[in-house]
Amino acid sequence: MSSTTTGIMLLGIFFILLILRTPISFSLSLATIITLVISGFAPEMFADIMESAVTSTTLLAIPFFIIAGNIMDKSGISKRIVNFAELLIGDIPGGLGIISVIITVFWGAISGSGPATVVALGPVLIPLMVNAGYNVAFAAAIVAAGSGIAIIIPPSITFIVYGVVVDGVSVGRLFAAGILPGILMGFCFSVYVFLYSIKHGYRGRKRGTLKEISKAFIGCFWGILSPVIILGGIYGGIFTPTEAAAVAAVYSLLIGIFAYKELKIKELPKIMADSGSNTAMILLITAGAAVMSWLITTRGIATVVTELLLGISSNPMVIILMIFVVLLIAGFFLDGISIVYLFCPLLIPAVTALGYDKTWFGVIMIMAISIGMITPPVACNLYPAAQLANVPLHSISKQVVGLVISGIIATLIVIFMPQIALIIPNAMNL
Q1: Where are the domains of the chain?
Q2: What is the mean pLDDT of the chain?
């Protein structure tokens, strides 16, 4: 069976299963098993590759960061940070919406997960914006879009997976590369919120006095310190990203119990159960996608795709823009981890042949994935945001269009100005 036939069969079965609304983790596994058997491989290989995929020590960071995010959610830190930011920014047009974007970016430096950020901040931010006169669907759209930046700002669970899948790219370098692009996307969202708010008359509350701002800062100090400890430890060479995740979980536990005293010991079993459930879902997708990735590589499908892409145009930038469009379309149907496992084996050989930096391409891929988190039908950030706001999906989908365009603009800037992503990791010799 030729590489082209194998590729068509593999992806065809996969998308048919998705259309039939089979969960992504099962769609990945079933499509791969069927293709493996038809291609003459022993089915036992499936289990061996799955086991290898989820036993990477780097992936240990995922459950710890999820635990840290869930503990922070129960510690009352989000309300304290919102209050501080609101007093600081004041009554500029769209002030509360801009604050929501800033805080979702900050929270991404704790959880590393888009949906987790929506669930943690949505119950606080959406009612605040609605009470200030914001359209409820627009308020939910802001939280959903801003939370997508969580996978760009370090520590990012999706960057961890990319670092596992792609050889020769360290997770620490990826984390550093995501800082400025994440801030840039947050800035583009904030500009859109500002302009939208001028049109609709949305304003924040009066700026706080120096005393009020200082008191609010002290109240959220330990929470703000969390990403400083995590990232400072990684880039200072004190601990690895995996060890940083464990430190984040322990630190969150300590400030939740002793500093803020809002986390109750009796809540820990549920926090651990929820974190375990989220981790299991991610690792199940990882395991199934890893086998598909292996099949794509060994059957030469990646080589065919590389030759096809390089034959389309002699201009590398045209090819990268085409790849970006493909990733945006993939975001309509797939979650981020599946996109990384499915498309990296297909696209990395072409990216390397074009002479592009794999770290920079990883940033572009993750930015495209973050946009996909707010584009239906998958839109893993929109569903919890719509549920929290009690609005239908089509209402929030209309409000998110301008934010999607803003995200695309931010990504295009990074495509045409690669140093935005590379300046920090290069300066740090990562």
Answers
A1: 58-427
A2: 84
